[in-house]
From TrEMBL:
Belongs to the DNA photolyase family. It comes from the Bacteria. It comes from Mycobacterium asiaticum. Residues 162-184 are annotated as: Disordered. The lineage of its organism: Bacteria, Bacillati, Actinomycetota, Actinomycetes, Mycobacteriales. PANTHER family: CRYPTOCHROME, CRYPTOCHROME CIRCADIAN CLOCK 5 ISOFORM X1. Residues 1-130 form the Photolyase/cryptochrome alpha/beta domain. FAD binds at residues 216, 228-232, 259, 262-269, 362-364. Keywords: Chromophore, FAD, Flavoprotein, Lyase. Gene3D superfamilies: 1.25.40.80, DNA Cyclobutane Dipyrimidine Photolyase, subunit A, domain 3, HUPs. Its cofactor is FAD. It holds the Pfam family DNA_photolyase. Binds 1 FAD per subunit. This is Deoxyribodipyrimidine photolyase. GO terms for molecular function: deoxyribodipyrimidine photo-lyase activity; DNA binding; FAD binding.
Length: 451
C-alpha cells in the first residue's frame, strides 16, 4: 500500500508522528516498509502573507528536507484542495497523512481537502505542540482563560516520548511518479541570522542546552546577552518537535524548568486561538471593542516612525531596527515596543501585529496575536491595561550596559549614557515623538472610559 505524506509545519524526519503513521507496515507484508510519496504544497495564499525572511527560512528548510530524502520530495504550487486529491489519485494512495493543524486557516483548508479527497482519508496524527489544543480543559470540559491553572493541568496531561522516525522509516517514491512537475522552491535572497532546517535546529538546541540553559531563568530578559535559545523559528516551521526539546528538560533544574514553562505558554496561546478563532484579529475581551484608538494622519505618521525605529526612545528604536534588519526581536523588547504602540501612540494592536507577521521569521499566528493582546490588555490572562511599560526604565533595567542599544542604533554607538537621561541627544538621533508621562495618563483615561 502507498501513502501520501503532506508536509506543512513539520519540515523534519525525526520525531514525526505523521510519518510514523504513514509508514506503519502493511499488515499483509509486515517485513516491508510502506511506500510513501513526500510532498509539500506551496499555497499562493500563504506565500502572499509571508515576508521575505519567512519565505527564505521555508525555502532553506525545504531544500534541506529534500536533501535528507535524496531529492525525493515533491514540491508543487497551487491550492491544496486541488493538488492533494490529484496526487493521491496518481499514486493510488490509501491515505493522506498530515500533522494536525489547529489554526483557523489550517482547519478550513484541511476540511476542504478532506471533502475533495472523497473516500481517501485525510489522517491527522500529532501536532506542532507538546499537548495539542483541546486536550487541556477544566473538569467541566471548558477551556482555560488563565495561564497558571492551564499550566498545572497541562503538566498533568503530559506528552509522549519522541517518535523514532527518520529517512529510513519508509520507501520513498520518486516524485516523477506523481505526474506533477517540481515547483521552484522559494529563494527570495533574504539574509537570515540563523540557519534553517532540521540539522540546524538540532544542533542549535544541543548547543543551548550544553552552554546556556542553566542561566536561562536569570538572564532570559536581557537582550544584550546571548541568553535565549532562538528556537522560535525552528518551532514555527516544525524543523524540531517540542517533544525532542522537552526530553532534555529535567524539571529539577531551574533553568530547564523555566524553559519548559515557555513551551507551555506556546501551547496555551495555541489553545486560546483554537477555542476562540475570532481572536486572531479581534479583541478576545470584547470590552475593549469600545476603547478609543487613533487612526488619522498623525497616527499613521507615528506608526511609520515606530516601524522605522525613529521614535526617539532608544530601546524601542533598537528593537524595531533589529526587527527590520534581521526578522527577529528579543521577547522582552517585543513587549516593550508593543506597549509603546498601544499605550503611548494609542494605535490599534492589529497594526503592530500585522507588521510583526510581515517581518518576523518566527511569525506565528497564535503566539503573535495573543502576545500583542497580552500587551494591549484585551486578551486572556492579559497584562492589566493600566500596566504601561516605561520604555526608558525598561532599557535601564534590561540593557544596563547599553550594549544592545548601541548595536542597533549607530547614532548612539559613542554615547556613554545610551538611555539619554544625563546627556544631550546626539545629532542625527530624533527627539521623542511623544511625551511618555502624558501619553500614559491619556491611555489610562481611555481605559477608564470603557471601565
Amino acid at each position: 500500500m502507498t501513502s501520501l505524506l503532506w508536509f506543512r509545519r513539520d519540515l523534519r524526519l525525526g520525531d514525526h508522528p505523521a510519518l510514523a503513521a504513514a509508514a506503519d507496515s502493511d499488515a499483509e507484508k509486515p517485513a516491508e516498509k510502506r511506500e510513501i510519496l513526500a510532498c509539500f504544497v506551496l499555497d499562493p495564499r500563504l506565500e502572499a502573507s509571508s515576508g521575505p525572511r519567512r519565505l527564505q527560512y521555508l525555502g532553506d528548510a525545504l531544500r534541506q528536507l529534500s536533501g535528507d530524502l535524496d531529492g525525493r520530495l515533491l514540491v508543487v504550487r497551487g491550492r491544496p484542495e486541488q493538488l492533494i486529491p490529484l496526487l493521491a489519485k496518481q499514486i493510488n494512495a490509501s491515505a493522506v497523512h498530515v500533522t494536525q493543524d489547529f489554526a483557523p486557516f489550517g482547519r478550513r483548508r484541511d476540511a476542504n481537502v478532506s471533502a475533495a479527497l472523497g473516500s481517501v482519508p485525510l489522517v491527522a496524527t500529532g501536532s506542532p505542540y507538546l499537548v495539542s489544543p483541546g486536550r487541556v480543559t477544566k473538569d467541566d470540559g471548558t477551556p482555560y482563560k488563565v495561564f497558571t491553572p492551564f499550566l498545572r493541568r497541562w503538566r498533568d496531561v503530559g506528552w509522549r516520548s519522541p517518535a523514532q522516525t527518520g529517512a529510513d522509516s519508509a520507501r520513498w517514491l520518486d516524485p516523477s511518479e506523481s505526474g506533477q512537475e517540481q515547483a521552484q522552491i522559494p529563494d527570495p535572497g533574504a539574509t537570515l541570522d540563523i540557519g534553517a532546517g532540521e540539522a540546524q535546529a538540532l544542533s542549535q538546541w544541543a548547543e543551548f542546552v550544553e552552554d546556556r540553559i542553566e542561566h536561562y531563568g536569570s538572564e532570559r530578559n536581557r537582550p544584550d546577552l546571548a541568553a535565549t535559545s532562538r528556537m522560535s523559528a525552528h518551532l514555527k516551521f516544525g524543523t524540531i518537535h517540542p517533544r525532542t526539546m522537552a526530553a532534555d528538560l529535567d524539571l529539577r533544574r531551574a533553568g530547564r524548568r523555566e524553559y519548559l514553562r515557555e513551551l507551555a505558554f506556546r501551547d496555551f496561546y495555541a489553545s486560546v486561538l483554537h477555542h476562540w478563532p475570532h481572536s486572531a484579529w479581534h479583541n478576545w475581551n470584547t470590552d475593549f471593542d469600545d476603547i478609543q484608538t487613533d487612526t488619522d494622519t498623525l497616527a499613521d505618521q507615528r506608526y511609520q516612525a515606530w516601524t522605522a525605529g525613529e521614535t526617539g526612545f532608544p530601546l524601542v528604536d533598537a528593537g524595531m531596527r533589529q526587527l527590520r534588519e534581521t526578522g527577529f526581536m528579543h521577547n522582552r523588547v517585543r513587549m516593550t515596543v508593543a506597549s509603546f504602540l498601544v499605550k503611548d501612540l494609542h494605535l490599534p494592536w492589529q497594526w503592530g501585529a500585522r507588521w510583526f507577521l510581515e517581518q518576523l521569521v518566527d511569525g506565528d499566528m497564535a503566539n503573535n496575536q495573543h502576545g500583542w493582546q497580552w500587551a494591549a490588555g484585551c486578551g486572556t490572562d492579559a497584562a492589566p491595561y493600566f500596566r504601561v511599560f516605561n520604555p526608558t526604565k525598561q532599557g535601564e533595567k534590561f540593557d544596563p550596559t547599553g550594549d544592545y542599544i548601541r548595536r542597533w542604533i549607530p547614532e548612539l554607538a559613542g554615547v556613554d549614557d545610551v538611555h539619554l537621561l544625563k546627556v544631550e541627544r546626539p545629532p542625527g538621533y530624533p527627539a521623542p515623538i511623544v511625551d511618555h508621562a502624558a501619553e500614559r495618563q491619556e491611555a489610562l483615561r481611555r481605559y477608564r472610559d470603557i471601565s
